[in-house]
User: Fold these one by one.
Assistant:
Number 1:
Amino acid sequence: MHLTVYLSGEIHSDWRDEIAEAAADLSVSFSAPVTDHAASDDCGVAILGAESNKFWHDRKGASLNAMRTRKGIEEADIVVVRFGEKYKQWNAAFDAGYAAALGKSLIVMHNSEHAHALKEVDAAANAVCETPRQVVDMLRYVLTGQLPD
């Protein structure tokens, strides 16, 4: 068995790398949004031309990024959505909702401080966890049936 996993959400830490490194021995392919914040914000105007109005600047970028996000979520077997500690990730909540609407297996990751704020998102998930290691342990279990040591 092979899994395709889309890693959505917070882009200000190395949680994606932690998961990929810990899952190196598993048959898993990972995809993700563009995690270079400046590139993600400015892709629309870099490709389609400058905008004097910030709304249209952001709209161009969001529209391009949405193509990548939709493709990644639609092709994934499992979607992992991480909510970070510092920023409000409205896009992560949208991604979790989109994945749930498509019937994708969904893992939501956040610290316990955000449990109340994310209760509806958590209710839509197949699993809720706090660490990248727990994500890898879940992937290992799904693929092999093995429990962590």
Note: The chain has a mean pLDDT of 96.
Number 2:
Amino acid sequence: MRLRVLAVGQKMPGWVEQGVAEYRKRLPRDMALEIIEIAPGNRRGSDHPARAVAHEGERMLSRLGRDDHVVALDVAGRQWSTERLAGRLDEWRHGGRDVALLVGGPDGLDERCLAKAAERWSLSALTLPHPLVRIVLAEQLYRAWTLLVGHPYHR
């Protein structure tokens, strides 16, 4: 199973790349984590934010695999405990499909992306900066995996 994070935004600061890389290298090969950056839509001038979100959605949908299990990170989604995430991760792994985790831009995810999602997950009721979301997501996936294998990281 591959875990792919499709995230709007490009050229993250070095500290983001380093943080994500640290957790990526800790995950086993059968749960490889990949970050796919989606170019943000144009929000300058007279362009309406909805148009930018639609362009981001098109780019995101074009990167999905036909059989991907799609999870939208959405403020209106359900909040999961780490234990719940570990359970989901185990189910995804045994389901035999790749998992695509969708992270929208500053105006959220396109409705078509939300409609494609089998699940909606909210990392927090707080508004998190998008670079930080990548690190939190990578760390929580790693933490969930450690729970599954009995590693002492989560205590």
Note: Residues 130-149 form the longest helix (20 residues).
